[in-house]
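Sequence in, structure out. Go.
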Amino acid sequence: MNRPKAKRESTYIKFSESSLSNKNPQHNAAAKPGASSEAGMLIKMHLLRVGLLVLLWVMAPLPWMSPGWNSALAQRSGGGVGGRGGFSSPTLPRVNPSPAPSFPLPTPRSYPTYPSPGPPVYIRPVGGSGLDLMALIFIVGIVLVSLSMIRGLQRAGSSSEPESTVARLRLALLHSPQLQSDLRALADMADTESARGLADLIDNAAVRLLREQAAWRFGQYQVWTGSLQKAEGQFDAWMTETRSEYIETYRHFEGKRTAQANYQPKAEPDGRYLLVTLLLAVHGNLPPVPTPLRREGARQALLALATSSPVNTLAAYLAWTPEAPGEALSEADLLAGWPALELL
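Output:
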């Protein structure tokens, strides 16, 4: 019966001690001089930690904070076929000048002599003046041909036509398993080691894409003009950029074929697009294409690329993604990976 009373008395004593300590803050500060500063430091560290976590949470979704922000897009399969043999071998045959014709000179012949009181006289046939006239006409002809060649070179140097052109067309279509299969078959049969084979590759790809005009949705057309020495570098840069946008599950380049047999397709329920890229480098210029691209512009771009021939083709490359059956790009992935595409 006495235990509850003792408990109440001890509680009362603790409460009175705490109230006395609160009424005398100077005494508490003197008793614990570093308690407040230590508590303040702990609070500041906690606030700093919370602020850093909030900052990382806010900035994590930004693309430039993550180098592999489009790594999900790069995981798609892709195929490519082409070559650049036109840069290493001249497309126009060289014409070596033929040596100047030589005419036989008349040789003096001996004729019978007759005794006479004077010195002997040799009789030569008349005809030396005719040979001199022919030589003069030949020299004048050489001078005229040289002058015409110099004028032709001057006109070619002052012409506004570029020495070479590199063009790239991207075309996003509604996904079609048949189109995927046709592009793979086209890549298998292509001759990638000759200028004629590369020109035929672009022609056949353009024909196949023109048959799918109803499925065109987005597109992009780029043109570069400049010297022949820089054209190969521009072609390589665009081809490397295109190849980096997917996993190469198939490639046929300059006669060499590679394929990944262990690739696992990644199907998405909202995948509905296929992206095809045509890359071409030629001597001279290509027909103009109207901008903005739109559907008619995409059609004219395909026809412009189809004007290539074995004479002016330097390099060509056809790429498509996805390449594996069952894969397709969603519209979000398409516009995030290729934001420069125009709505057709």
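Check: The chain is about 45% helix and 20% strand. The first strand starts at residue 77 and ends at 83.
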